[in-house]
Structures are given as C-alpha cells and as structure tokens.
Amino acid sequence: MRPFLFFACLFAGSALYAQDSTNRFSVSGYVEAYYSYDLNKPASNTKPSFLYSHNRHNEFNINLAFLKANYQTNKVRANLAIAAGTYMNANYAAEPGVLKNVFEANAGMKLSKQYELWLDVGIFPSHIGFESAISKDCPTLTRSILAENSPYYQSGAKLSYNTPNGKWLLSVLALNGWQRIQRVESNSLMSFGTQVQFKPNTNTLLNSSTFIGTDQPDTTRLMRYFHNLYAVVTSGKTSITTGFDIGAQQRTKGSNDFQIWYAPVIIARYTLNEQWSLNARGEYYSDQKGVIVAANTPGGFKTFGYSVGMDFSPVPNAIVRLEGRGFTSKDKLFERNGEPVSGNGMLNFSIAVAF
After folding, report:
1. What is the pLDDT of residues 77-105, one digit of tens each?
2. Tens digit of pLDDT for each residue in 201-215?
3. Distant-in-sequence, close-in-space partners of 1: CB < 8 Å, separation ≥ 6
4. pLDDT of 11
5. Which of 193, 301, 303, 345 could form a disulfide with 39 if both were Cys (CB 3.0 to 4.6 A apart)?
6. pLDDT band, very low/low/confident/very high, at 296 (cuts 50, 70, 90)
7. What is the CA radius of gyration of the chain?
8. In angstroms, rounded to a whole number, what is the distance separating the alpha carbons of residues 337 and 291?
9. CA distances from 8 to 2, 76, 106, 131 (A)
10. Which of 47, 44, 45 is closest to 346 using CA atoms?
11. Of 82, 133, 73, nearest to 105 (Cα)?
12. Cα 272 to the chain's mean position, in Å?
C-alpha cells in the first residue's frame, strides 16, 4: 500500500530530525495482532454485528496497525496516521476510497500566547468515551459494548482549552456527523459536541461528553442527543472505571417522541506487579428500538456482558493479553448451529507493540 511506503520513508529519514534540539517531528507506530474463538462458531467467521474490534472468529489477524507522523511546536501541531486491520475494515466501511485507511489527519494552531487554547481541524479521535481503538491503552483487551457503538473517530473542528493547573479540559466541536469523515449525502446540518474533563488529583478523572446532531439526509432527518459520562479512580494497585451512556433520537422527523438507549459499564483492574495485571468487566446495553444496534426481536437489543482478563507486559511498550468474554441477552439475539440462542461466549488473545 502506497501510504505505508510513504511512512517508511519518513521513518527512515527521521534521524535527520533527531539532530534538531526542538524535537518537533516524530514518527511512531502500533501493531496489534490477535486470535479470537467464538464459541457459537459463526459460519461467516465474523462475530456478532455489534462488535467492531477483534471481530474475526478462529483466525489470526491484525486488529489495528498504523504508522503516525507528528509535528509539534509551541504554536502549531499536526498528525497524520495511516492504518489497516480488521478494526479499520469494520469501522470505516462507509467511508469512500482512501479515507478508509486514514486513522488520524489533523492540523492545529494555538490561539493564545498565554493560555493553552487550541483549534484543531481534521480527523481525530472521538471526544466520547474512555476507550480508544488502541487496545494497549485500554483497561481490557476488547472494547465495551458502549464503546463499540459510539464514535471511535470524528472529523470536524475542535476548540479546546486546558487550564494552567492542568485540572480542567474544556472542548467544543463542530462535526461532520456520528463517526463520519465524509458527511452523509444530502445532509446539510452540522453536528456538535462538548467535552468537560476534570482531574482533581492524580488518581481521579471525571469526564462528561455530549453529541447533538443527525446522521441522515435532510428529507428523513432524525435529531440525536447523546451524553457520555465516566470516572476513573485509582487507589494503590486497583483502578476502577465506571461509565454510563444515554442517547435519544426522534422517532419521526420533527417529532417530540424519542427513542432511548442507554448503557452502564464498570471495569476493575488490579496490578500484581510491574508486568502482570488482572481485569474484570460487567456491562449492560439496552436499545429496545434498535436505534444503534438492530435486533429483530420483540424486546430489542438488551444484553448483559462480562469478561475477565490477564495482561503481561514484558516491556513498557508491549503487552500480551488473554481474555474470556460472554454475553447474555433477554431475547435470542445470537445464533449457534443455525439456531437462535440467548448467549454467546468467546476467548480472545492479542499481542500489541507500540514503537
């Protein structure tokens, strides 16, 4: 792929920039390989449609691999990352042409000499949620149901401000849509978002993010309102992450009647030592009307999820992860041997290296 050849050249030439004491330019990368076994043995070798990461059954594959170039000064900054993997195939399926491989592409300018006030424009990671596409940086191997079904990436403009004491982050965003690079055809309305993040101390993080907009053409426009709330609290060797998503979308155009979905999650992580750690997750996702997750059953998509995992990090930039995960639904949403069933289980293994 030509973009990868381009970044290989950048990586080879980055030594020239290393002599610059300002260290303005850098190249980094990430590769996560995985194997997953779905106990329901899907004939298509693809896991249930509400999972977009690590979604291939009984095969060795790459979830995400990217090369990233970063340029940073006191006044401007820019990022460009080109990626491939099953995560990209699933999440970027609606994007046209070469945009299917653009993991990140943005440019920013500092608007104040005195304050950390930045304007960034382009394609950047979502302001929603505590989990990203980079598994190494997340508390569990796989993503929560709420993370899989809210934006991983966005395109638009972001105005952000960090307070001098580093405790507050405030952002407002104008966006092309709900996880969209190219806006939906015949949609003339921009979407908008906000983020407020508070770090009262080094062990606590509180975040509130919102989205207001639509992802449909003007003729069938349904307004969507969404709020993501989470907290991360660390005490000694234990870290607890709790999150709650709630969304509402108009039932019909111009209607005051809304369809609601919501999702709570809690993740506990315990560090045994510098190399080993354990994690456990419990979650629930309710989308009775199929706004986000379609389900052709009377009760809609109402599913409990749970997982336990073990991580081994031999060096700081690499991690080996093993996870057992299961789902239990109110209705028979899953399929095993051609028959509908109410449960699903899977085993996941991954190796991730950042460089």
Report:
1. 999 999 999 999 999 999 999 999 999 99
2. 999 999 999 999 999
3. 82, 84, 101
4. 42
5. 345
6. confident
7. 21
8. 28
9. 10, 24, 20, 28
10. 47
11. 82
12. 27
Q: Which residues contact 17 (CB under 8 A, 6 or more apart)?
A: 23, 24, 25, 26
- CB–CB of 130/266 below 8 Å? no
Q: Encoding tokens for residue 101?
A: 């491989």
Q: Which amino acid is at 99?
A: L
Residues paired with 328 in a beta bridge: 304, 343
Task: Write the CB contacts of 31 (distance below 8 Å, at least 6 apart in sequence).
Answer: 62, 64, 65, 352, 353
What is the rounded distance in angstroms from the CA atom of residue 159 to the CA atom of residue 118?
6
User: Rounded to whole angstroms, how far apart are CA atoms 228 and 157?
Assistant: 20
For 137, residues 6+ apart whose C-beta sits below 8 A from its C-beta are none
Length of the chain: 355
Contact 89, 45 (CB under 8 A): no
Q: Per residue, what are the HEC states of the chain?
A: CHHHHHHHHHHHHHHHHHCCCCCCEEEEEEEEEEEEEECCCCCCCECCCCCCCCCECCEEEEEEEEEEEEEECCCEEEEEEEEECHHHHHHCCCCCHHHHHEEEEEEEEECCCCCEEEEEEEEEECCCCCCCCCHHHCCCCCCCHHHHCCCCEEEEEEEEEECCCCCEEEEEEEECCCCCCCCCCCCCCCEEEEEEEEEEECCEEEEEEEEEECCCCHHHCCCEEEEEEEEEEEECCEEEEEEEEEEEEECCCCCCCEEEEEEEEEEEEEECCCCEEEEEEEEEEEECCCCCCCCCCCCCEEEEEEEEEEEECCCCCEEEEEEEEEEEECCCCEEECCEEECEEEEEEEEEEEEC
Work out the number of other CB atoms within 10 angstroms of the CB of residue 164: 9
Calpha distance 70→81 (Å, rounded): 9
The reported pTM is: 0.91
Q: Provide the pLDDT for residue 66.
A: 98
Structural tokens at position 322: 């093993």
> How many CA atoms lie within 13 Å of 167's alpha carbon, on the beta-carbon side?
3
Mean pLDDT lowest among 10-19, 141-150, 217-226, 233-242: 10-19
Q: Which two tokens stand for residue 336?
A: 């095993």
